Amino acid sequence: MIPLLLKRLLHGIIVLWIVATLTFLLLRVAPGGPFDSDRKLPPEVIANLEAKYHLDEPVWQQYFRYLVGIAQGDFGPSYKYLDRGVTQIIADTLPTSALLGALAVLFALLISFPTGLLAAYYRNSIIDRLCMLLATLGISLPNFILGALLIWAIALKLGWLYAARWDQWTSAILPMITLGAAPAAYLAALLRSTLIDTFGEDFVRTARAKGLKESTVIVKHALCHSLIPVLTVMGPLVAALLTGSFVVEFVFAIPGMGRFFITAVTDRDYPLIMGVTLVYTAILVSANFLVDVLYSYVDPRIRTH
């Protein structure tokens, strides 16, 4: 088990290095520069700015400086926010995006598991059709439309919640539902499909023939056996939710990392773009690594491979 995890860890480090390198190179070959704007700056001003941020150095030297900074946990200065470095911006905004993502993950799990289980157990019944109708709507409806509908119905018409605040626990309810609805619907549909196949397996029929309680057969035998496909998609899904959604943060005016990433792209703030991209990649790699660990507990046969 330990060699397998060390191998996954090494793969994750290689992925981080590849993403960091590609992001650096793509930004260097992209048209325009970080100080291009509608207001033309004098050449001497641009030269001073490039010297300040080491952009006048050879590309290989900039790349080496960039990798050394990453290794030290320093993503460099921001070209747009002169009083804050990229590391500080990420440290200030990532907890907000992570909190929203964690709540969305919890919402998705609490909704998807009962829904998928009910739909599979009562296959082809009215309960199954109703659950799959809700799942189809959740998958098909874009989150920016769902967010706008929730703001209109819950915040504006009913006045139950505020639409654009992030100062109390109720402020997270509408963004949590908006961000977690589609993953919940997708996981419910996936779990239903997997459970239907599992209910027809010989070991489930054997467990029932032994006289075990139906709840034990469902939870201990069928559900546990059906978690492998769910865990497979949970890695990237959790990573995407934990880093938040650009659209959801924009719709609900949440001061998360996604909003800074959007402004960094429009402002050509290269260090902030590279820093946020690398953080997203690190979270994705960590989520996949955690899934590999969970695999070994759900199915012990994986430990031997």
Quick overview:
The protein is mainly alpha-helical. It has helices at 2-29, 43-52, 59-71, 86-121, 126-140, 143-157, 173-199, 202-209, 214-225, 227-242, 246-251, 257-267, 270-298.
Question: What does this protein structure show overall?
Answer:
It is built from 13 helices and no strands. It has a domain at 94-304: Orthogonal Bundle (MetI-like fold). With 305 residues, it is an all-alpha fold. The chain starts with a helix and ends in a 7-residue tail after the last helix.
What percentage of residues falls in helices of 4 or more residues? Answer: over 70%
Find the structural class using helix and strand composition.
mainly alpha
Indicate the mean pLDDT: 81
How large is the share of residues in beta strands?
under 5%
Unreliable stretches (pLDDT < 50, length at least 5) are none
- Distance separating the two termini: 9 Å
CATH architecture of the domain at 94-304: Orthogonal Bundle
Query: What profile does the largest beta sheet have?
Result: none
What overall form do the CA principal axes indicate?
A: globular
**CATH topology term of the domain at 94-304:** MetI-like fold
CATH superfamily of the domain at 94-304: MetI-like
Question: Regarding CATH, which class of the domain at 94-304?
Answer: Mainly Alpha
Based on CA atoms alone, the radius of gyration comes out at 24 Å
The tally of beta strands, per DSSP, is 0
